[in-house]
Amino acid sequence: MKAKAGFLGLLAALGWSGAALAAGPTTAIVGATVFDATGAPPRVATVILRDGRIADIGADLKAPRGAVVIDGRGKALLPGFYDVHTHWTPGGDPNTTPQIASAYLAAGVTTINDFHQPPEAYEPRRRWLQSLTSPRVNFTARMSTPGGHGADWADRATTKWVNTPEAARAEVQALIPYKPDAIKAFADGWRYGTSPDNTSMDLWTLSALVDEAHKNKLKVLTHTVTVERGKVAAKAKVDVIAHSLQDREVDAEVVELLKQSGTFYAPTLAVYEPVKPGQPEPDRADPRVQQSFRKFGYALHNVKTLHDAGVPIALGTDAGMPGTPHGVATLREMELLVQAGLTPVEALMAATANSARAMGQIADRGTIEKGKRADLVLISGAPWDEISDVRKTDRVFLDGVLAHGPGAKVSPTNGRTAMPPIKTAALIDDFERPDGRTRLDTLRLDDMDGGMERTVQVSQVVSRTDGGHALSLAARMATKAAPSAGVLLPLSRGSVEPVDARGYRGVRFDVRGDGGEYAFSVDTLGGRWRTSIRAGEAWTTVEAPFAALRPVGRGQEGRAWTGEDLLSIGFSGGRAAGEKLWMEIDNVTFY
After folding, report:
1. How far apart are the C-alpha atoms of 253 and 251, rounded to whole Å?
2. For a designed S-S bond to 130, which of 18, 200, 265, 494 qualifies (C-beta 3.0 to 4.6 A apart)?
3. For the chain, what is the mean pLDDT?
4. CB neighbour list of residue 560: distance below 8 Å, 6 or more residues apart
5. Helices 122-131 and 2-13, packing angle to 10 deg
6. If 0-12 CB within 10 Å is exposed, 13-18 middle and 19+ buried, where does residue 421 land?
7. Tens digit of each residue's pLDDT (9 = 90 or more) over 523-545
């Protein structure tokens, strides 16, 4: 509570509140050519925005007394764009939350789905986004099969692992307290032809997942990239296939199944484009390059075929992945839809009404109609004639308030790269809480190696023979190079708010183990820091001073320790392939 109060207090001091956008004046956009995404042709009209909503639309409307008047003559007014598939990842372009938010608004994108965040991060990230001038973000929970796509990195709290209908229903229920906005199922195990498919989600499990999600009013999107798995997705009644079917041309069966199920199709052409804007021409003799062009050819053909057959097309990009920058990728996706054979109008429909309808939000946004949310983009051009005009953003409105363009009021926190650091108590965890959380009220996480073949580990709280409890880690190393097992103790919920530990010299903990070498690590906004420790069967107390930590990663040798941006601490170890490891830790505290 102190952290939240401090953060909001800082914003108030800077003259900003999360409700600032909703408190804007009445605005009249006069004389713009309105593409309302209802199917009506573009027409010149005046649009009145009041109290966050579209109050009126008409050719002969007068601007209300005292309204802010914006001259829209010669410009196009459209619903804000909607991208149903993005990843707000620190490895993307741009790579911080405020920068990503600004990039989307600069492109006229006012709603997105984020597929990257762990459920523990939803609450602090929602709080952070409320402080920013940002598009609306739907947090989409992740579910996959053991070893499946999406489950080959991070922990089982970030991506739920399910392999039976019973597990799928249980994990959907486990997500409900976090209030996800949707669920993504990594249902297709085809790794784009680079390895065998041995991790696809079967029809029974996917159907149960979808059914349980729908009972809880959650839409389900799938990572589905092959024609046969497209049939499974349709039979399971998923709401959106969030990638291209690209292993071959679609057949009549999958077309009919998708039509019957009402499934939307968001092909994410932008991420699959073999040579992206600005990239050099690749070696066409390279088999991998040849395959990328072949897949992209199928992707273009299939979206056109599905569209012509009546399957509704939504817009997604997979932005945040390599070569797929936030914001501009949404605009590129529209251009690629036109390249595939859709008309500019059809591409605009995919980016507005269709995406809002796919996510069950068409009653609130996605069209310019009286009573709808006033999320709009004003463009210097006529994108229904020339789709590349979508790049000519003039102004963007959120809840009827100017959020991008001349005179826009932008939150001062958009200039920060992270949330302000918070103070924390000295005791991180003594493993005495009965609910499986740390003393800082954070969720302990497994931190084993990544890949399809992962180390098998069990971390659990156990009783100590001398009284109290400790955290036990037991693991069998995966059969591969450099396997590892570990646990993380986040210092703030979801590791979103950095912790200022400059008042401490290091971390102290009790430890025992199998006599081998282990690592103690600290994750920061700048990266991971680590030092080695050893532990035998007898309990011993170890102090790990921050001064002994060294940055991890190539080219990181000169990175300086600041102590004000800590995210989590970790304990890990590696052994030879197939070998076992164990360790126990207790009484983890700053000193």
Report:
1. 5
2. 18
3. 95
4. none
5. 10
6. buried
7. 999 999 999 999 999 999 999 99
Please report the beta strands in 336-392, taking only residues with DSSP state E, as ranges in sequence order.
Answer: 376-379
Q: 510 CB contacts (<8 Å, ≥6 apart)?
A: 470, 539, 540, 541, 542, 585, 586, 587
Cβ 356 vs Cβ 82: under 8 Å: yes
The residues facing 377 across adjacent strands are 78, 396
| Cβ neighbours, 10 Å, residue 211 | 16
Alpha-carbon distance of 198 to 145, in angstroms, equals: 10
**Per-residue tokens: 117:** 């965040």
**Which distant-in-sequence residues (6+ apart) come within 8 Å of 231 by Cβ?**
253, 254, 257
26 alpha carbon, distance to own chain's centre = 33
Are 544 and 533 a contacting pair, CB within 8 Å?
yes
Within 10 A of 420 (CB to CB), how many other CB atoms are there? 16
Beta bridge partners of 378: 77, 395
How far is the C-alpha of 376 from the C-alpha of 323, rounded, in Å? Answer: 27
Question: Token digits for 588?
Answer: 């983890």
Cα dist. 546→175, 361, 510, 521, 568 in Å?
36, 49, 17, 10, 13
Q: How far apart are CA 541 and CA 532, in angstroms?
A: 14
Report the amino acid identity of residue 320. G
Residue (of 507, 509, 510, 479) closest to 566 by Cα position: 507
Q: Would you say the pTM of this structure is higher than 0.85?
A: yes
Q: Which of 337, 360, 339, 359 is nearest to 350 (CA)?
A: 337
Q: Which residues of 449-468 are buried (b: 16+ CB within 10 A; e: fewer)?
A: beebebbebebebeeeeeee
Average pLDDT, stretch 201-214?
98
DSSP 66: T
Whether the Cβ atoms of residue 77 and residue 34 lie closer than 8 Å to each other: yes
Which ranges of 51-202 would DSSP assign to H, the alpha helix? 97-106, 122-131, 165-175
Q: Compute the distance between CA of residue 355 and CA of residue 280 in angstroms, rounded to an integer.
A: 32
